[in-house]
Amino acid sequence: MSITLKDVEHVAKLARLELTEQEKEQFTGQLNAILKYAEKLNQLDTEGIEPTSHVLPVTNVMREDENRESVSNETALKNAPDEEDGQFKVPAVLE
User: Fold this and answer.
1) CA of 94: how far to CAs of 27, 80, 91, in Å?
2) Considering the domain 5-42, what is its CATH architecture?
3) Is residue 88 within a helix (H) or strand (E), and if so which, with residue range?
């Protein structure tokens, strides 16, 4: 399978992109190079290889979820530009 200039023009139209003739030719070449590389990958013998979602093992690096003291209201509001009744005061966004 290969990408034609007509395919690039069709996708550009769907994406509402205005491409120059030079860009159309450039993208046609680049997309064909990607497909050629994918075909090369299909030649690899993957028999007996377990499918994976990541190249490297993924582990959770976050801390354990545990209860601990929260920040006090005064500390949280210390650097607030404006506060009212112990809450952050922000400009209204609704009319």
Assistant:
1) 44, 21, 9
2) Orthogonal Bundle (1.10)
3) strand 87-88
